TrEMBL record:
GO terms for cellular component: nucleus. It comes from Acrobeloides nanus. Gene3D superfamilies: Homeodomain-like (1.10.10.60). This is Homeobox domain-containing protein. CDD domains: homeodomain. Residues 1-22 are annotated as: Disordered. Coiled coil: none annotated. The keyword Zinc does not apply. It is found in: Nucleus. The keyword Membrane does not apply. Its main location: nucleus. GO terms for molecular function: DNA-binding transcription factor activity, RNA polymerase II-specific; RNA polymerase II cis-regulatory region sequence-specific DNA binding. PROSITE patterns: HOMEOBOX_1, HOMEOBOX_2. Residues 25-85 form the Homeobox domain.
Length: 85
């Protein structure tokens, strides 16, 4: 073991003393800022199909170089926006 790994362990918070049934908190993902081209492409896809399946969303995410969850949440939010209008 290197000295570096020992230092890392010293600064790691101990989560072993949490009460049973309480999981450690996950870190929130950083907000994704979409550029104009990505927004336009997502809008075009939404006009074509407002409820793409998992495979279609994965294809869209791959084409736009985005995470699948970002695309999924964008479509969900866009449907909510449409419902409010």
């Amino acid at each position: 073991r290197s000295d570096y790994s020992d230092d890392a362990e010293e600064h790691m918070p101990l989560i072993t003393n949490l009460p049973p049934g309480i999981a450690p908190l996950k870190r929130r993902r950083k907000r994704t800022n979409l550029d104009n081209e990505q927004k336009a492409a997502l809008d075009a896809c939404f006009i074509e199909n407002c409820r793409p399946d998992h495979t279609q969303m994965s294809e869209i995410a791959h084409k736009l170089n985005l995470d699948h969850d970002v695309v999924r949440v964008w479509f969900c939010n866009r449907r909510q926006k449409l419902r409010k209008e």
